[in-house]
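Input sequence (187 aa), recorded before submission:
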Amino acid sequence: MEEKERQGKIRHLKKWSIGKASRWLVSHANEAGIDIDGFEHEITDYFKNHVLKEHGNSKKEKAKGQIAINENDFEKISDIVENPDHVMIGAKRDGKDVLYYVKKMTDGTILYVENVINNEDNKRLLGKTMFKRGKDVNKDKFKNIISMNNRTDISKAKIVNPVGTGSNPSYAKVVANPTQPSGQLSD
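Predicted structure, token format:
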């Protein structure tokens, strides 16, 4: 367990490993200049508390056109990062590398966000937030959701669609450069 000091109190931060980054994800991140080879996807109790507090209230989420996140949704993260419908690689939020995933599930479409932590002490893909929508999220809607806050730079990002299995990079293809007009594919 990792200790974290907050407002003069020491608390234990619980962590859960979701698994290693897939080869296709490592390959596409590498092309974007982000080295995540050997990194693990990880969530913490802080992440879970944040998500439930910000996106777990049915009444508030319905008012935003979303569906409340529940405890069972955390168990879906492994499938989301292994087999997303789309993933945005190369985006920066507040100057830091961030990965965005979207996956349609039986009870809604989940958007999951990870911070890329790459320093001497930590090399991991850390869960930042997640929320659920009732509607499908295509690549254009995905791009619009990510860029609406004006804190996320997607100018060098690529949207990748892993077709088939999530463990083979030959199945992953770039479907769009988010800065190009809709309908145009990037190289």
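Checked by second reader. The chain has six helices and twelve strands.
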